[in-house]
Amino acid sequence: MQREAGGGRIFPQVWRLDPFSLRSRLTIGIATVSSVGLGSIALWTGWQMQRILINSHKQGIEYIAGRLPHDVELYSEMMPVETGLSKAINNLTTADTLLWVKHSNGKITAKSGNLKTQSDRGTAAALMSLTQMPSQAQVSEVNGRFFVLRGSPLQVREKAIGQLFVARDISGDRQMFLAMVWNLGIVSLGVLLTVTVAIAFYLRRSLQPLRQLNLMTQLISAEDLGQARLNLERAPSEVKELAQTFNMLLSRLSQAWEREREFVSNVSHELRTPLTIVHGYLQSVLRRQHNLTETQQEALETAASEAERTIHLLQDLLDLARADSGYLQFRLDSFVLNDLVAEVVGMARQYSDRAIAIETETHPIVVKADYDRLKQVLLNLIDNAIKYSESDTSIQVKLDGNPTAATIQICDRGYGIPLQHQSRIFERFYRVDEARTRGTGGSGLGLSIVKTLVEGMGGSVTLRSKLGEGSVFTISLPV
């Protein structure tokens, strides 16, 4: 049966802001490009609108400056030139346009008669005090207001009668333009935020297959390599190719893992028998000590000890290989746990000559487990407690039971295990201190065997340790 992940149906949706994620980077990148694009369009639009607005006013000023001499000529045929000039100026004067004619001596000979619409007569006076103006219409600021200004010589019938000045107030139009640009900026910002949110949700949905790949890899263990497969139905083609490659990788890893387990099982099985024979011959020779010198006896004892340690190591490897393959058998029977604990503690006292105390309930605690396997587990944990604690400290074995589970605690007052190592202490061949492990003869498989056997009997094993205060291994078994 395959473990599959497809269509986003088995994995929960997780919204988590990560500034370094691909989704955040794409969102920020697209939002930045969009903001630059919208900003450029807004600036270009504003610049074009301002240019059109100013050009329209400039054209109006140029039209007035070109028409006034013609009107003065028409009026001068019926009335004096000064009267015709004033009448022509008043005809071309509007609410936002001011005209005046200044003689060469600096005296104003005619000007717009209707100045009531001008917001500030001081501003009008400041304009009329100007002596020079551009010959082409230009925008200038006078007293905090903006005007389009133009000055040109005024001739009537080829006779110069002064300098014509035209000023059009565009402050109101400019304020309206700035308000429009401000509103355009606000709308652009709103559009940008909306687009950014939409992009973020779209990318979140588009990257969901990659999140499924990530979650799937977190769930896969060594035991699942042969069954775990990815099936992404509605993913992009690139992600589907990645999933297929990932499935091929899982298949190769599964085959490699299976070959490794078979190799360990075969090697352990093949080496255990000859080593057992060698160990038996060494023990037989050692029993005839009167024929051996002291050096020979010491060498044979060392060889026999190492052979025995290697046999135990091979047995542990064989048990682990069988557990990985599902061939490790357990004979689960009901028995009194108090009796087993007392037997194991008695054996440990005999071979270690250490003080080992038992704290147990007065009533018998019955569990359903494999008697021999549980004995192996307890001997292993007590042996660890003896090895990694001082010889003058005691070891406690606490036994407790309740209606649902029985617990066994092996407590020592030894060196303790650092916090960063506690989560990996049950891994195979993992050693907290290589030098100390070599000195005590450990292989790094003991606790892994303990965990495998206890879980195989339906229980659990946990560790609580503190440096300098010791460690407590707790086994929980169903009653």
> Beta-sheet strand percentage?
15-25%
List the domain count as a whole number: 3
What integer is the average pLDDT? 78
Which spans of ≥5 residues are poorly predicted at pLDDT below 50?
1-15, 435-439
Structure description:
The chain is of the alpha+beta class. It has three domains: 42-178, PAS domain (Beta-Lactamase); 237-325, Helix Hairpins (Orthogonal Bundle), CATH 1.10.287.130; 332-478, 2-Layer Sandwich (Heat Shock Protein 90). The chain is 54% helix and 17% strand. It has helices at 22-76, 81-92, 121-128, 171-206, 208-219, 237-287, 294-325, 337-352, 371-387, 419-422, 434-440, 446-456, and strands at 97-102, 108-111, 138-142, 145-156, 159-169, 332-336, 356-359, 366-370, 395-401, 405-411, 460-466, 470-478. The strands form three sheets. It has a five-stranded antiparallel beta sheet. A five-stranded mixed beta sheet has the order 7-9-10-12-11, covered by helices on one side. It has a two-stranded antiparallel ribbon with strand order 6-8. A hairpin with a 3-residue loop joins strand 11 (460-466) and strand 12 (470-478). Helix 1 (22-76) runs antiparallel to helix 4 (171-206) and helix 7 runs parallel beside helix 12. The chain is rod-shaped. Residues 1-15 and 435-439 have low confidence and may be disordered.
